[in-house]
Design a protein that fits this description.
The chain has 293 residues and is α+β, with helices and mostly antiparallel strands. The chain folds into two domains: 55 residues; 235 residues, YVTN repeat-like/Quinoprotein amine dehydrogenase (Methylamine Dehydrogenase, Chain H, 7 Propeller), CATH 2.130.10.10. The protein is 22% helix and 39% strand. The strands form six sheets. It has a four-stranded antiparallel beta sheet, covered by helices on one side. The protein has a four-stranded antiparallel beta sheet with strand order 5-6-7-8, with no helix packed on it. The chain has a four-stranded antiparallel beta sheet with strand order 9-10-11-12, with no helix packed on it. β14 and β15 form a beta hairpin. This is Lipoprotein. It comes from Hyalangium rubrum. Keywords: Membrane, Transmembrane, Transmembrane helix.
């Protein structure tokens, strides 16, 4: 009996000991589970964070991948800027001494352009280049001088380009070199042209100035808020403005001045192609597809 009692007591003690071990192993198991879950979460987060980069990689871009592959081979870098034709069929990039152009042709065209500071395409798909000394236009596979005006910003319109210099002088110039219009800004700003190349806008010192693109006829000059950014919308006369601070964004009709509030949120800085409802931003000095604002 003593043996049975002893065995039974030992068995009960063993059971109690096993219970204590079970209770002790429970938190360890939970801790291990939490560690595994955290590791899996980190893996998922890393994969998710990497996905946009892979999607927006220049040579795998859904709209500009082939053009970017061509441009990257033609001008390995460093690249200082880019431009896309209104219909998206051509793209160009430039460095300190050269401009590369790619399109439907199998091989790229590389132009010598020392001191290049800006490039753009006009409504007819002609490439324009601004250098420290002059304005150039592509013609028959060559860059030909258009004048001694030396702009620092370019934006193509339906018949030519708008060129803006460091003094705030702005000219609208036709493909034949004719001055179609001119305007004066207090100092340079962020110049852009909207859908169909009809209207132009400049964000300068927190304000907005809008023009007819071809003639540079003034439409309005105002500061509906402290403007931090501008996106052209699908309607040729409408832009979306990002405002400083906690103010909502504004959708503005450049002809009538009508305004509508839009949700305040982070938006990718991007240009809308004049000939397609497609937004583009720079990645590694090349054009990549951007989300709609």
């Amino acid at each position: 009996m003593r043996d049975r009692d002893g065995h039974g007591a030992a068995g009960r003690r063993g059971l109690r000991l096993s219970g204590r071990h079970s209770r002790a192993l429970g938190p360890r198991s939970w801790a291990l589970s939490l560690i595994i879950a955290a590791a899996l979460a980190l893996l998922v987060a890393t994969a998710t964070t990497s996905l946009p980069y892979l999607v927006s990689s220049p040579t795998t871009d859904p709209h500009f991948g082939k053009l970017n592959h061509c441009l990257a081979l033609a001008l390995p870098g460093p690249r200082l800027g880019w431009a896309v034709a209104p219909d998206g069929s051509q793209a160009a990039t430039f460095g300190a001494r050269a401009v590369a152009l790619c399109g439907a042709q199998k091989s790229p065209t590389v132009f010598s352009a020392p001191g290049a500071v800006a490039i753009t395409f006009d409504g007819q798909g002609r490439l324009w280049v601004a250098t420290h000394e002059q304005l150039l236009r592509e013609e028959a596979g060559q860059l030909v001088p258009v004048g001694d005006f030396a702009p620092v910003a370019l934006a193509g319109h339906s018949e030519g380009v708008i060129a803006l210099d460091t003094a705030g002088q702005m000219l609208s110039i036709s493909a034949q070199g004719q001055v179609l219009g001119q305007a004066k800004l207090p100092f340079p700003g962020a110049l852009s042209v909207g859908p169909e190349g009809l209207l132009a806008a400049v964000v300068v010192d927190g304000g907005l100035i809008a023009y007819e693109a071809r003639s540079l006829t003034l439409l309005r000059a105002e500061a509906p808020c402290q403007v931090e950014g501008l996106w052209w919308l699908d309607a040729p006369e409408r832009v979306l403005l990002a405002c400083e601070g906690q103010q909502p964004a504004l959708s503005v009709d450049l002809r009538t001045g009508q305004r509508e509030e839009a949700p305040r949120r982070w938006r990718t800085s991007a240009r809308r192609l004049p000939g397609r409802p497609l937004y583009v931003h720079g990645c590694e000095g090349l054009p990549c597809t951007a989300p709609s604002p």
